[in-house]
Structure formats: structure tokens, C-alpha cells
Amino acid sequence: MSDSALPKLEVGDIIQALDGVCNSQVDATGTTKPLLACVVSGVLRGAVVMLGGEGSEVRDTDEYVALMKKLIASDLVILAIGYPVTVAQNAGLLNPEAKELCGDGLKRVCELAEIPPVLPLGGLENIGNVVTIAQALSADSGLTVPQLPVVGCDAAGVSAQAVELGNTFVGLGVDTFIGIMPYEGSLEDVIAASGLKDGAEAKHTVSANLEELGDAIIADIEKKRSAIAI
How confident is the model at residue 25 (pLDDT cuts 50, 70, 90)? Predict the structure, then answer.
């Protein structure tokens, strides 16, 4: 499936859907504040932006799906861009019924907002929408983007495209997690050869084991939550 044919929600669609989790009589609507309220209360632990481009198919699909299921079971909502949208769609994770695979908090949000736990943002050309959402969350919360309990993830391996996107995320202050294929030699050499570069306020975490990568993502989200006392 080409990127242009991928299921896609606009930023406005997501914000409108999230209005379903707030009390319209007393809470602001049309903003990211309902999402922030869920995160602050702990109903949602945070968000993971999962992205990937052509060539992602080299990663075993079962591993990819297992990582997604691990994250949503930990009450992390997933924003999918590019190849992960196809993975999630084929695994049924873009369906409302996928709420049954979620932790209690994310399941409740899915029920109230009538959304699946994996939200498709279309192809990689829509990466700017993630920046828009992050900036809106920052403005509505008073937190900087690096403080938000949000991370990036490319579970497919280190391609030139993945490196570019990973470095972009880190440059924004978003910790980014890269799943690579099994390798020979030292991990330090693999990272150096890839061109991945840590930023002033964020870093890359690289692993060939997606189970371990999922654990690292969850730990990073919880560290961010602790740092802002939520």
C-alpha cells in the first residue's frame, strides 16, 4: 500500500475525538487539554509516535505487532505514521475492538472518545502533524516539548530515512527509540556508522530486541512523568 493510500486522521479529527473524554459543561473543548487531563491523571501514561518508511518490511511483523500490543497494554496511545499504519491495520489495531488489548486507562479513553488505541496519521509526508500536536500539547500544558511524556520510535531498522527522521525527533527534544536488525560487531560501531546523533535535550536508544526496546520506551515515559511530578 502506498503512503498516499494509508488511513489518515487529521490533527483536528484527533482533537475533536478527544473532546469525548471531557465534560463539555466545564472543560475546554477543541484543544489538547482533554488529552493532557488524561495524562496528568495517569489514565494515559503518555504517547508513542511510531514511524517507518519503505523497507520496514524486513522486520518480522509479529515482533512489530507484539511491540505495539505491549505499548497499548501499558496505557500508551500510539500515533502511527507510514509503514506502522499498515502493520496496525493488518493486525486489527485500527479497529475500536482493539481496546480490549489495552490497559484499563487507555481502554476507557478509547470507549469515551470512540477511537482505536493506534491512531493513523497517514504517510511520512504527514510528519509535520506530529510537530503540530507536540507544539499544541506544549502550549496547552505550559511544558516544553522535551518535558512531555512523548517518545518517537522506528522499530524497523536503521535506514537512511529512519536516521533522518530519528535525528529530527531528537532535535525537537523527543527521545527516540530505534529497533535495528541483528548485527555483528559492537553496538557503538553500528550507531556511529548509522549517523544517528543525540541532541542537547534528547537521545536515541537502539536495540535489536523489540521486547527490550518496549521496556526502554515504558521506562522513559515513566521517567518523564516523574520529572514533572505526575
Answer: low
Which cell numbers in the block locate residue 63?
515482533
Q: Let me know if 160 is exposed, middle or buried by CB neighbors in 10 A (0-12, 13-18, 19+).
A: exposed
CATH number of 3-227, picked from 3.40.50.2030, 2.30.40.10, 1.20.272.10, 1.20.1260.10: 3.40.50.2030
The rounded distance, in Å, linking the Cα atoms of 157 and 105 is 31
Q: What residue ranges do the domains of the chain occupy?
A: 3-227
Look up residue 123 and give its amino acid. Answer: G
Q: What is the dihedral of CA 4, 6, 12, 15, to 10 degrees?
A: -160
Helices (H), ranges, 114-209: 128-141, 160-171, 187-194
**pTM for the model:** 0.91
